[in-house]
UniProtKB/TrEMBL annotation:
This is Glycoside hydrolase family 13 protein. PANTHER family: ALPHA-AMYLASE FAMILY MEMBER, MALTODEXTRIN GLUCOSIDASE. The keyword Nucleotide-binding does not apply. It comes from the Bacteria. GO terms for molecular function: hydrolase activity. The keyword Hydrolase applies. Gene3D superfamilies: Glycosidases, Golgi alpha-mannosidase II, Immunoglobulins, Oligo-1,6-glucosidase, Domain 2. Keywords: Glycosidase, Hydrolase. Residues 134-494 form the Glycosyl hydrolase family 13 catalytic domain.
Length: 585
């Protein structure tokens, strides 16, 4: 047995409670090495023998490792456990905190001292059932020309935004298009920042207590939230607390009074007086973005100020949650306090961090419910858009993402194919519609909450910021209506399927040497299978039909085509870059 490949740690994401009385554990072994695995466990205060056993199941693999998972009952919330492993040759081994041994006692035990409430995940149910639509308000719809900024440019299909362009989009525009959004089938909106700021993106906040006048006012926001709620649509706002804008009153006070300002300590200023050139002498967002001074969120006054702002908007407008900008550069204590404050006001508010990489540390239950899942975007684009990876590698990438987060957080990840910070998905697909549809199919069927970036559904294109922020195409003749119908269909399929919204995901089949891949999702009695391939030839795959128990035939939920089950297998034909969603009739 390859003991050097074994890995477990009694800490998230390899040991994490599913609820107050169940601990979910994971174990990593060398790929193909271990044949059988069990977790032996007891209450931490029981005598040293451990007679209780749960099986560990191999649930995923990547190029190097297999991953095993099991659920240990913890009636008193405190457990100790060790793993028992067997390989092909019948050799066996114990693995615990002291190491590896053929002797159980010598291997020692892992300990999960106590399951605390703070580690129980509580992403609201409505969020797990959501399809989110992201809106960049300056570019979605101009609903009120009287509030347009000076030098507003023409809203047209050929518009190519520069970093400082304005097109006049606003909150009234979002209100006006609620019927469109409802028909599309989405049930949550995420708006990028809307508070007062001089820029078009509003990530440089001048006044956290005011809606930007070019977008509307407090009443417009309240109307938006209540009209959205009437349409069954939730509203999530963007909280930019890592930094403020240059015009923020506290920073202006520091500029005026230097060290004598009572707000001096709210920022990281190297030495006074404040200078913006040749380089800012204070910490900023990214590199030398002088318009965005970094806030000291670990300073109690700053923390209280920002938490009050978030609390006030949550209370006053009835919004359903927050997306947190540059969340990974703000201290953890701030986010714990944030969660406590917001959840006290709205117990079903969702909290989503912007973390582009391994987000495990923020998803232990005490900070965020979800993060924007950029690693998912990378994996899906590499498979569907760029054709860089095989089905096997896609499976490995998706498995690795899963292993970075505690199991209960996995289904709450906010999956995306693009955002206001990236190239649009159609552009990433080089305009190839077949690739685009394959990517969208994965987005809408995989574990996690899908997010659609405004305009993707009508075929908008665009390179990196600022090109990905073109004004929305509303002219029906300019929209890709077939694509729109495709999005609507997939959204409806997802919203109608508990397995897709809540179910676990398991690899169904991996093409040994090509671009084929299949997974299935299961929730209670419902099973749905998704089969895809990323090549430009037609293919036929024969899959084990066991996940569907005794089904006689499976139906493609998108086309209605029927596939017979024969001798426990189902043979599925796929055209170039095609995907199918298979289920019982
Ligand atoms: C402007 C220019 C850009 C330039 C940038 C940085 O237009 O071309 O790259 O400055 O100098 C907002 C505006 C942007 C504006 C920026 C600065 O929307 O248009 O860009 O302010 O004025 C990292 C951060 C992540 C951040 C992205 C953009 O970790 O938090 O960079 N995203 C949020 C918002 C942005 C917003 C800000 C932060 C600032 O969503 O819209 O920008 O409030 C890797 C790394 C990531 C990195 C990512 C992208 O994968 O792992 O950490 O994200 O690349 O660079
Ligand atoms: Ca306007």
């Amino acid at each position: 047995m390859k003991v050097e490949a074994l890995f477990h740690r009694a800490e998230s994401p390899f040991a994490h409670p599913l609820d107050a009385r169940r601990l979910h554990v994971r174990l990593r072994t060398k790929r193909g090495d271990v044949k059988r695995c069990e977790a032996h466990y007891a209450d931490r205060y029981d005598p040293p023998e451990m007679s209780e056993i749960v099986p560990m199941v191999r649930t995923g693999s990547d190029a190097w490792f297999d991953y095993w998972e099991g659920v240990i009952p913890a009636p008193h919330r405190r457990v100790r456990y060790a793993f028992y492993l067997e390989d092909e040759n019948g050799d066996s081994l114990w693995y615990g905190e002291s190491g590896f041994s053929s002797d159980r006692r010598e291997a020692g035990v892992f300990q999960y001292p106590y399951i605390h409430e703070e580690h129980l995940h509580s992403a609201p149910d409505w969020f797990l059932d959501s399809v989110v639509y992201q809106i960049f308000p300056e570019r979605f719809m101009n609903g009120d020309p009287t509030n347009d900024p000076e030098h507003t440019e023409e809203w047209s299909v050929s518009a190519r935004p520069r970093p400082d362009s304005f097109y006049g989009g606003d909150l009234q525009g979002v209100i006006r298009q609620l019927p469109y959004l409802k028909e599309l089938g989405i049930n949550a909106l995420y708006l990028t920042p809307i508070f007062a700021s001089p820029s078009n993106h509003k990530y440089d906040t001048t006044d956290y207590t005011r809606i930007d006048p070019h977008f509307g006012d407090r009443e417009t926001l309240k109307e938006l939230v209540s009209r959205a709620h009437q349409s069954g649509i939730r509203v999530i706002l963007d909280a930019v607390f890592n930094h403020c804008g240059y015009g923020f009153f506290a920073f202006q006070d520091v500029i005026k009074k230097g060290r004598a300002s009572r707000y001096w300590d709210w920022f990281h200023i190297k030495s006074g007086p404040v200078m913006t050139t040749p380089k800012p002498n204070y910490e900023t967002f990214a590199q030398n973005v002088w318009t965005m001074p970094k806030l000291r969120t670990d300073h109690h006054e700053v923390r209280e100020y920002l938490l009050d702002v978030a609390a006030e908007w949550t209370r006053e407008t009835g919004i359903d949650g927050w997306r947190l900008d540059v969340a990974n550069e703000v201290d953890h204590a701030f986010w714990r306090a944030f969660r406590e404050r917001i959840r006290l006001i709205n117990p079903s508010a969702v909290i989503i961090g912007e973390v582009w990489h391994d987000a495990g540390p923020w998803l232990k239950g005490d900070q965020f419910d979800s993060v924007m899942n950029y690693p998912f975007r990378e994996a899906v684009l590499d498979f569907a858009a760029r054709g860089r990876i095989s089905g096997r590698e896609l499976d490995a990438r998706l498995t690795r993402i899963r292993m970075t987060v505690p199991e209960p957080a996995h289904r709450a990840l906010l999956n995306l194919l693009g955002s206001h910070d990236t190239e649009r998905v159609r552009t990433a697909c080089g305009g190839d519609d077949r690739r685009l549809r394959l990517a969208v199919l994965l987005l809408m069927t995989y574990t996690g909450v899908p997010m659609i970036y405004y305009g993707d559904e009508v075929g908008m294109e665009g390179g990196n910021d600022p090109d990905c922020r073109r004004p929305m195409i509303w002219d029906a003749d300019e929209q890709d209506r077939d694509l729109l119908a495709y999005y609507r269909l997939l959204i409806a399929i997802r919203r109608g399927s508990a397995a897709m919204r809540r179910g676990e995901t398991r690899t169904w089949w991996v093409d040994p040497d090509g671009g084929g891949y299949a997974f299935f999702r299961r929730w209670q009695e419902e099973t749905v299978g998704v089969v895809l391939h990323n090549g430009d030839t037609s293919r036929t795959f024969t899959l084990d039909a066991r996940p569907f128990d005794h089904a006689e035939e499976l139906v493609d939920a998108m086309t209605g085509e029927v596939f017979a089950v024969r001798n426990g297998t189902v043979t599925v034909a796929l055209g170039p870059f095609q995907g199918r969603v298979l289920r019982l009739k």
